[in-house]
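Contributing new records

If you add data, match the layout below exactly. Sequence lines come first and carry their own label; structure lines follow with theirs. Keep one chain per record. Anything else will be rejected by the validation script.
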Amino acid sequence: MARVFWFRRDLRLADNKALNIAAQAAKSVGHTHLPLLYALDHAKFEALEGIRQHSLVESLRALDVDTSGVLGLVSETGLERLAARMADIAADASITTLHATRAFDPEGVAEQNAIGVALRDRGIFLQLDDSYYAVAPGSIAKGDGTAYRVYTPFSKVWFDYAAALRPEPRVTIEFQPRLADTAPVSNLAASKPAPFKVVAGEAFALRTLERFKARALHDYDTLRDRADLSGTSHLSHALAFGEIHPRTILAALRDLPGHNVYRKEIAWREFYADVLWHNPDSLTEYYDPKYASMRYDTGSEADRRLAAWQQGRTGFPMVDAGMRQLLETGWMHNRVRMIVASFLVKDLHIEWQHGARWFERNLSDYDPASNSHGWQWTAGCGTDASPYFRVFNPITQGQKFDPRGDYVRRYVPELRHIYGAAVHEPWLLLAGLSQGYPAPIVDHAAERIEALARLAELKQA
């Protein structure tokens, strides 16, 4: 009756319900140690950008340290081979049950299904428990049993669920030395460079939470949209890798000033996970399918503009600062994510999937549901969507959420010679573009009119 635990997007020891269940099951049959695994599709790892590779490596290494260096790495190329390898290792170790946290996103579901089938064929049971969320996707439904399609009524029910949650205790069991035929986690190394040294892991996540409580929680409702200030939690990376569970955050912030506004952000994350669970095609397809028929730009000119957007060379400082922040740090301020998304879809008339793929490639805090549905919200085709006719003005957005221009100057060195808010319209200054910054690649006012005209076409079709 030997048990093993398979870590996934839950790289922590505290508040890990599935790990606790595995430990209790092992103890119940007289085992005092629990072996640990992490499964890696090497092809998918190699496809990641450097910042994402380094983020995963550092998170795994931190977990390995926390488990006294016994975390076993199973690496193969392709899901089918990975599943077979997991089954071989478990069978050779006389494992009867492999425990893991249940995934609800399409890729995670495909992974657990493939590994579950391979294990079953060897007489081994895959037990899946809990989720990466405070409230598991699919747990909340309307009175008629159907899923919520709008955030506000979902969130009201979610708040009731979340209020009763308490973190799981830290696991209490010794961890067994690595299983035969698994590699030490230290063998995993990034094949691409990162722009800076990544710090990750459960301990760092918990310190980040404490810093957020002291630094920004009390003003979170007013400062979270300011790109020039450190007004956000900086916990998205830890949540993406499961270095901290939302239950832990909700419990730590309960009854503190600013908590209610912050928990709404967690509720949005969990709403999007619920929507993706019920609509897995919405990872890459339009949630509102009529927008697939809208007229979008393609061809060489669209490709040139997409490349300018990706590299932060559009000539709109707030957009370019955000895109360069992404490339330099693997992260982007949430308000700026909306600004750059609106610009791509409604100023450049390029479909949202191009932007979502670029974010997936570069964001160290990539979450499939939040990424796809955040993009669809801004593109006007998702749940609770910002109406398509709402077009973010990148100039006024910059003036409002970076009023002194500090954020732009931090990431756009060609504009550091411009003082104050004038940095958001450098083309109006005699020497504004003298340091090599490009002129705007489009006329925002004209493209806004064009975006609304294309919306009108869609309504008339």
